Amino acid sequence: MKAVKEALTPRQEGVLAFIKESFEQNGFPPTIREIARHLRLRGPKGAQKHLAALEDKGYIRRRSRLSRAMEVVGWSGETASPTVAVPLLGRVRAGAPLLATEEVEQHLRLDRSLAPSGSFIVRVTGDSMVDAGIHSGDYAVVRPHPQPRNGEIVVALLSASGGDEATVKRFYKDRDAIRLEPANAQMKPIVVRPNQEEVRILGKVVAIIRKL
């Protein structure tokens, strides 16, 4: 690895400052897409190049291919955050609901700052939440929360013949129904009325982790 003191370009200095700011304010680093938005780039590729340069020059270290798994080398301002094993449950479909089995496939180690106590992870498939930045293959970190607020993104179980169907949607409680709204203009919401199937809210989505 090259010396830490190798000069950075002005843009690279801006990226490093943004990473430090995220650590100071949130306790964890920004995602690739957050960096891209901060730099006003059209996509994540430019942000990835800046991160690669910072890593090559010795300013940051990326511990894995998870989106937030990075640290600033030799910087005392970063808040140390121990990891925790978080259970990965069966897949949840962000689109037409998918039959869900609440079985633990494996445990993933995450910074504790990303996973509040009792959290679990679901793997998302489908494209109904793309406008909210949730894509097929993402990992959604979910905090159990049976009574979400309107507009929050949740994992909900819908009772159906033969088992439970789980889906990721924005939650809205209307006067006479629960509405699970997609973040995709091409798809329709799921509206559940009291005399129809039962809805059980598994929790609120608190973080999205993306394999780069």
Question: What does this protein look like?
Answer:
Strand 1 and strand 2 form a beta hairpin. This protein is 18% helix and 33% strand. The chain folds into 2 domains: 63 residues, Orthogonal Bundle (Arc Repressor Mutant, subunit A), CATH 1.10.10; 126 residues, Ribbon (Umud Fragment, subunit A), CATH 2.10.109.10. The strands form 3 sheets. Strands 4, 5, 7, 8, 9, 10, 11, 12 and 13 form a 9-stranded mixed β-sheet that branches. It has 3 helices and 13 strands, in the order H-H-H-E-E-E-E-E-E-E-E-E-E-E-E-E. With 212 residues, the chain is an alpha+beta fold.
Give the amount of beta strand, in percent.
25-35%
- DSSP strand count: 13
Uncertain regions spanning at least 5 consecutive residues:
96-102
Largest sheet: 9 strands, mixed
Number of helices: 3
CATH class descriptor of the largest domain: Mainly Beta
The fold-level CATH name of the largest domain is Umud Fragment, subunit A
Helix content: 10-25%
User: Using only CA atoms, what is the Rg?
Assistant: 19 Å
Global structural class: alpha+beta
CATH superfamily of the largest domain, called what? Umud Fragment, subunit A
CATH structural architecture of the largest domain: Ribbon
Distance between the termini: 22 Å
- How many structurally independent domains? 2
Task: Tell me the series of helices and strands, N- to C-terminal.
Answer: HHHEEEEEEEEEEEEE
Global geometry: elongated
Query: What is the typical, i.e. mean, pLDDT?
Result: 80
